[in-house]
Design brief:
Blueprint (H helix, E strand, L loop, with lengths): L1 H42 L8 H34 L31
Length: about 120
């Protein structure tokens, strides 16, 4: 039973890390594009009006990617709680990246807690 839980957790962790990496890559690529457009417009001695809609679309895309990244981070936090809930809190998944302390709060009692 523990072996099955660990295998399932490893599969989910691999998919999670792939999704996180893909979102980060999309943010990096879109940021490079958004940064390149004004520079190339200026280098070509073109009016600021040229490509404004494209620049705004890239900026809107960056906002959406930021929201996607926030969503995958929340997913990661919830999966960390699930990892603890299924008895795998001592198991490390991934490449050993250190999680900031205090960002993942778990309530293992199954009862509601009072928030300050």
């Amino acid at each position: 039973m523990l072996k099955q839980r660990r295998q399932a957790a490893e599969s989910v962790a691999e998919a999670l890390f792939a999704a996180e990496k893909a979102i980060d890559a999309a943010i990096t690529s879109t940021a490079a594009l958004a940064g390149l457009m004004p520079t190339t417009r200026q280098d070509a001695n073109l009016s600021a009006l040229v490509g404004q809609d494209a620049l705004m679309a890239a900026i809107t895309t960056m906002q959406a990617l930021g929201a996607a990244r926030e969503g995958i981070v929340v997913t990661h936090k919830h999966l960390s709680v699930a990892q603890h809930d299924i008895g795998l809190s001592a198991v490390s998944f991934g490449e050993g990246a250190v999680k900031p302390a205090g960002l993942i709060e778990t309530n293992t009692s199954g009862r509601l807690t009072v928030a300050a």
